[in-house]
Amino acid sequence: MTLYNTTFENFNKSYIGSATMAIIGQSCLGATAAMCILANGTSLTQMAQLAIIVFANIFANTSILAQLSHKTVFNLILSSVFLSVLLIIVNSL
Prior knowledge:
This protein has one domain. Helix content is 88%, strand content 0%. The protein has four helices and no strands. Helix 2 runs antiparallel to helix 3, helix 2 packs parallel to helix 4 and helix 3 packs antiparallel against helix 4. The longest helix has 25 residues. The protein starts with a helix and ends with a helix. Keywords: Membrane, Transmembrane, Transmembrane helix.
């Protein structure tokens, strides 16, 4: 929990810069996950995975634009990055 708290404190201290970099980073990671998903075809399973990753990225980006609490934004960014990495790994095997 110490890593989470330390990272959140750093994110919170420089929120504007961190949020800007997070939008760029997690959007690129989400696009990579979408590419890996679509490289395996367009079955119902792949479309469900694609919908999950698209909505995760949309929620993270929208939370920043909607000026939600910093903790909520941070948690949505983390979940988006986690889902992107997970789906990249699953679809790369």
